Amino acid sequence: MWERAIDDAMTKIKRNIERYPGLFPHIAGKEAAGEKRYEWGANDDWIEGFYTGMMWLGFEYGGDASLREAAASQLDSYRERLEKHICLDHHDIGFLYSLSAVAQWRVLKDEGARELALRAADKLLQRWRPRIGAIQAWGVRDDPENGGRIIIDCLMNLPLLFWAYEQTGERRYYDVAYRHAHISRRYLVRGDDSSYHTFYFDPQNGNALRGGTHQGYRDGSTWTRGQAWGIYGFALCFRYTKDVRFLETSKRMARYFIERLPEDGVVYWDFDVPIEPDTPRDSSASAIVACGLLELLDLLEGGDPDRALFADAVQRKMKSLVDHYSTVRLPDAEGLLQHGSYHVRGGRGPDDYMIWGDYYYLEALVRLSKGIKGYWYE
Ligand code: GLY
Predict the structure, then answer these.
(1) Pocket of ligand 1 contains residue 282 by CB under 6 Å
(2) Of 360, 357, 371, 258, which is closest to residue 307 (Cα–Cα)?
(3) How far apart are CA 298 and CA 292, in angstroms?
(4) Running DSSP on this structure, what letter comes out for residue 280?
């Protein structure tokens, strides 16, 4: 069952490469001839790494050299982007360079890719705000709205720093990632295991101010993709640090997520939004959680009481994604997963292909099929 879905994904990735040479899929597409399409453009958003990462997964899965060449040929655009600082005033440097430069290093042991990834990690370090003890998510230093703001998504950017520590032995990478993970756990995860999307601190003295949201339904709600980033992100923090508090947090957040799954195993865009017939889903959140649960299953002891719950949730979720959300039955589609949502409240991409949804869907499939686990750790 997984193999058929993977074969379909390979066909679509290769066709997109041929059809849109040198371009990257952007958020919130358009419709052509009644079908949703990606909008294609330059390497200038936070999401390009997911497309490159899909090519690496595809190459590792099937050995198709055209996928390796397509992925490697994009490295120059990531290099240019870093050198010219093109749209990099945000923490998603981690997503961008983990799935391009680090992936290329892991798969090909390419020294140029390693050197680029280390420079990207240095740029991410520049976002460390010592008064808060955290990485600033968005905007430039002293940005009036975002200067003291952390967001839960950042947990998935930390593997770039942990990787840089492994490569160089320099503690500064590890310490920033470890301290950021701790402050995220303390302020973004609530006592009932739900999460804030974002948290504000006073940038001058580091005082904790309040939780809030950007892409969720309202300030105290739980944005499902934020919860998903937390599940996978904290599991990876445990992988790197062996601090069991991160493992426990990931598990707690996973139970919260699974207990609130709708009948078909694929979440709506926020756990607190009223459910109407046209309430958008976020298939990408469910794909991220499938990967996070696979990671947890790898980390947990054989007798852990949550194993059965997590294993069952992975199967249920992935079967539903393949059967009801994927484009397996739509041979001309550009995306792999339908019904993702980006920023429903902001009116951006409320029901579309999301390239990170496609990436995590494929990551989960190749992990289930062949144990290929992506590029977040060795
Ligand atoms: N990291 C941004 C998002 O999940 O939309």
Answers:
(1) no
(2) 258
(3) 10
(4) P
Residue 377 lies in a domain: no
Distances (CA, A) of 362 to 4, 52, 148, 334, 337: 12, 12, 35, 14, 10
Confidence of residue 31 (pLDDT cuts 50, 70, 90): confident
Atom of ligand 1 nearest to the CA of 226: 4
Token pair of 195 as six digits: 């999460």
Q: How far apart are CA 80 and CA 332, in angstroms?
A: 33
pLDDT, one tens digit per residue, over 282-294 is 999 999 999 999 9
Q: Note the pLDDT tens digit of each residue in 187-230.
A: 999 999 999 999 999 999 999 999 999 999 999 999 999 999 99
The residue range of the domain holding 281 is: 2-370
Question: 149-151 and 198-201 as β-strands: parallel, antiparallel, unpaired?
Answer: antiparallel
For residues 40 and 20, give the distance between their C-alpha atoms in angstroms, rounded to a whole number.
Answer: 7
Ligand 1 center from residue 89 Cα (angstroms): 15
Q: CATH number for the domain including 153?
A: 1.50.10.10
> Within a domain: residue 114?
yes
The answer to whether residues 103 and 125 touch, using CB atoms and an 8 Å cutoff, is: no
Establish if 346 belongs to a structural domain: yes
Cβ burial 119-149 (10 Å sphere, 16+ → b, else e): ebbbebbebbbeebebbbbbeeeeeeebbbb
> Three-state DSSP class for 273?
coil
Left, alpha or beta for 267 (phi > 0: left; psi -120 to 50: alpha)? beta
Please work out whether the CB of residue 153 comes within 6 Å of at least one atom of ligand 1.
yes
On whether residue 39 sits in a domain, the answer given is yes
Which class for 39: exposed (0-12), middle (13-18), buried (19 or more C-beta within 10 A)? middle
Total number of domains in the chain: 1
DSSP string, 337-366: B--B-SBTTTTB-SSB--HHHHHHHHHHHH
Check residue 321 and report its DSSP letter: I
Atom in ligand 1 nearest the alpha carbon of residue 225: 4
